[in-house]
Design goal:
- The structure is a single chain.
- The protein is of the alpha+beta class.
- The chain has one domain: Beta Barrel (Porin).
- It contains six helices and twelve strands.
- It has a twelve-stranded antiparallel beta sheet.
- A hairpin with a 2-residue loop joins strand 1 and strand 2.
- The protein is globular and about 55 Å long.
- Homotetramer.
Length: about 290
Amino acid sequence: MVHNEEMQTALDDLIRLLDLEAIEVNVFRGVSPQENRQRVFGGQVAGQALVAATRTVDDNGRHVHSLHAYFLRPGDPTVPILYLVDRIRDGRSFSTRRVVAIQHGQAIFNLQASFQVIEEGLNHNDPMPDVPAPESLPDFRTRMAPYKEVMGDWYDRPRPIDVRHVDGGPMERKSNPSSFQRVWLRADGTLPDNYVLHQCIVTYASDMTLLDTVALPHGISWDDKGVQMASLDHAMWFHRPFRADGWLLYDQHTPSTSNARGLATGSIYTADGQLAVTVVQEGLLRVHQ
């Protein structure tokens, strides 16, 4: 019970992190958690930017169906982030927004998002891979127990997103290179019935493991000496409704690495096999000798 309460508290902290302060028309302010980070987590900036965009769309049943974003500079976790929203267009079926995240007078991130009213139409999706159930896989603390002493306080910190690796974690897979990985993920607790919040939390979580995939074919991981990795851009398409506090399978693949960049794609399925979200990300991947 204590563990569950800790996880719900961590999830509630994430909800508050995404609850931006409106300081002027089309201008919002977000903060970062008090963690020992050198830079702001990319998923946090993407999630907060989507919140900012969403709050300028009238409550008329329009939900984000796609977003395209670029990470421009590392974010400073010690100061707030300003999100400036440009209301590009409001049509009969679609609305478009552009968001720029500002720190120290410079743009660190920009995002374009498109919102659509719910419509009926043709329907199909690729089948979900056949993988073990998430409950049969180790959670973070179980999987990382051998590294507990090295991780220190980071090991015991409650986490708002429960991630379970189907094929083993990146560090364990360095001896068995491949071009794919599958993880189950969910918000570790209960979320309110606010679909916008579910979309923003999945946006946050989508950046947690995807870039790791581009290192897998080369038998390396982000924590290896001399390895430099950073997200460059991020795109998402939202196909079908989902709950972020229900299990979602994140099926990830890397088709190419070249010119110090790696490309990764991800398909996010609901537990009953519906393709909910498609994600594509390119990241920097340098290996210094």
